[in-house]
């Protein structure tokens, strides 16, 4: 474990590191660490094993930098935005969503279309519209 480098950790992960270090050095009992971290004793044991094998990097969330399971492919979003620009730029998000579904077979939620239109500057939310 003589690797050197920079590890990005959240404050929660830093707190977890301190507790797991204490367990690994036998300064803290597993059950008390589990209580403190809000985990099961077995999970604390798993973290200690991973800490001993990989060091502090083993306690960093392994989901960091990984795409969401429900994220739509960028090609679908690009196609939807292209169609909205070409044909439905003056529509609201709800109607644009319905037209994308009916005419083009693109099934997106109204909220996804609203986000696309807002980010592209085609739609201004009601709260941001001025009285002018």
UniProtKB/TrEMBL annotation:
One Pfam family recorded for the sequence: HTH_32
Swiss-Prot/TrEMBL keywords: DNA-binding, Homeobox
Keyword DNA-binding: yes
Molecular function (Gene Ontology), one example: DNA binding
Name of the protein in its database record: Homeodomain-like domain-containing protein
Organism: Caballeronia arationis
